[in-house]
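Work Package 4 report. The design task specified in the project plan requires that, given a folded chain encoded as structure tokens, an amino acid be chosen for each position. We show below one input record used in the internal validation round.
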């Protein structure tokens, strides 16, 4: 269940092309190299715990690959972080939705399309009442879902 009280697979915003499907690829932007660990995976700083757990922050922002414009995604991430170089990592929606903690689904993926960006979606950690250490472990489980790291080419 989502924070809205209905299954996240059914949530669709007015500007959205469709609900987020399990087989969709999602992209998370990151600043290179500061948000990348030595092994090449996303660093925890690229997936802030507050974004995942605080509904007022709007969830962890991701882009639905089949609807996004990568040049706009790149420009927005560089401008937001005042950085020179950015990249993105991909994950399969189903991977995030399948993370379980003590028989409960840990994450929901919700369509949060905006008028100016119909590709926007958000990931939330929906288990409450767990210690910060457990939340960090679940965040690492989510980070393991990311693959195919790419640096944006010059725009």
């Amino acid at each position: 269940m989502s924070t809205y009280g209905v299954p996240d697979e059914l949530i669709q915003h007015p500007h959205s092309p469709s609900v987020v499907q399990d087989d969709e690829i999602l992209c998370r932007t990151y600043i290179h190299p500061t948000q990348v660990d030595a092994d090449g995976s996303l660093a925890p700083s690229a997936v802030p715990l507050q974004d995942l757990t605080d509904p007022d922050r709007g969830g962890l922002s991701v882009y639905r690959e089949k609807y996004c414009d990568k040049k706009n995604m790149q420009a927005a991430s560089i401008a937001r972080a005042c950085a020179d170089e950015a990249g993105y990592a991909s994950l399969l929606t189903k991977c995030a939705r399948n993370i379980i903690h003590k028989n409960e689904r840990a994450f929901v993926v919700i369509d949060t399309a905006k008028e100016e960006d119909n590709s926007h979606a958000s990931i939330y950690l929906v288990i409450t009442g767990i210690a910060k250490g457990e939340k960090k472990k679940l965040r690492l489980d989510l980070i393991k879902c990311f693959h195919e790291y790419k640096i944006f080419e010059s725009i």
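The mean pLDDT is 86. Validation will be extended to a larger panel in the next phase.
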